[in-house]
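Ticket #4471: structure output looks truncated?

Reporter: J.K.
Steps to reproduce: submitted the chain below (452 residues) through the standard prediction queue, then opened the result file.
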Amino acid sequence: MKVLFIVNQLFFFRHIEPVVSALISDGDQVGMWFGDREKENISDRAVQEFLSLHRVDYFHGISLRNDRWKVVLKVIRDLQGCRIYLKPGYTAPKSRIRFLEKLSPFARSVVGSRLGKWILSKEISYYFLSFMERLIPANKAISRELGRKTPDIVVIVTNLIWNAPEFEYLKASISLGIPTVAMIASWDNLNTKGTLNLIPDAIILWNQALAEDAMILHHFPREKIVSTGAQTFDYLFDFKPTESIAEFCMRTGIDPARKFVLYLGSSASIAEDETRFVRELVSSLNKNLNVQVLIRPHPINHKIWASFDEAGAIVWPRNGDLPDTIGAKEDFCKALYFSQAVIGINTSAMLEAAVLDRPCITIMLDDYKASQDESGHFRHLLNGGFLEIAEDFDQASEILKRILNGEDRLKKNRKRFVSEFIRPRGINRPVGPLIAELIEQLDPKKGILAHA
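Returned output as attached by the reporter:
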């Protein structure tokens, strides 16, 4: 079978690597085509490492639509995306603001009027906009591109970003009669971006909680959704440290005679400049506990840490690092594994910490209200019941003191969260091979994945 992955940025390679590896092991031919929407400080090193070990049809720079329908399609997709932010009870003010800033002028005028909001809030607007999307033909150049490659199935990997190029490949694949699958890249995408404007033969999500978001917010049909678990984190379940804690501390600058906690940096869209927050945290821990803080910057929000220097804290790696290559995954896992607990505002790394059974602490201040309890995806962490929640830094110190004394009161909740959110198909069942198997057995006539 020839499987072609269309991915809008190299940042998402880590989401498909376990699936691609499994497909190759099964003898399938795999293509990986990436777009140019790259994030700062993210390279193609992981892809190149993979290509050195596997034979893959690799291409970087997928085509963008640039014909007479481009402007019309943007308006239709903008309006469809706006419907998510008008859903009753949906609260994500920061995401809403970012989305509205990227709208076309016409779409902004519609959403800015009371009548426009009322119309978009009605279900009939979804069907009308979907009908308009289907009326517009696929891009001829992209259709020819796919036609030359003759894939048996096209898998788009998307975070539902505004006007994403992979949507055009989905549209072209459907028009050519090629079976299609959409993999939603991560847990926060359904609540913070846009939406799919065409429905593929199957939509792969991590779990039932995200499936509910997909149906309520995005109008994805239940019969098209398959909950598989989080393939991105398969590597964590196989982790075994290859060096001692003393050796790790020596490499990072941590004092091996003292315990340390790991601070997990957030993206700029979540926390902006979080250095003041961390200074107050370190000050409180220095005052109340004999514990160090190892700070791991978010790889695309690392510049804020360039001049950070506080007693009792180490920034490592200084420029942040995405756990994408074999070595980078090892270092990230060791930082989690050797720490006594992790602390953060709102980051996917809390999911990885839970997999490695590290206690997780978050401090919920008014400054970050919009990124925490007003953020649609953060509620999945709250609902998981595994976060130790502090209202200020001194309370965080008290919680950490209990953890250091052996009182890990949320350990069972953490285990349950991992089994339900990360690996709902079985805690010992790797997700990458599962998704590969489902892709191989896609039955487009039924509109579902076989054995789903």
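Triage note (M.O.): checked the attachment and the full token line is present. The radius of gyration is 22 Å.
Status: closed, working as intended.
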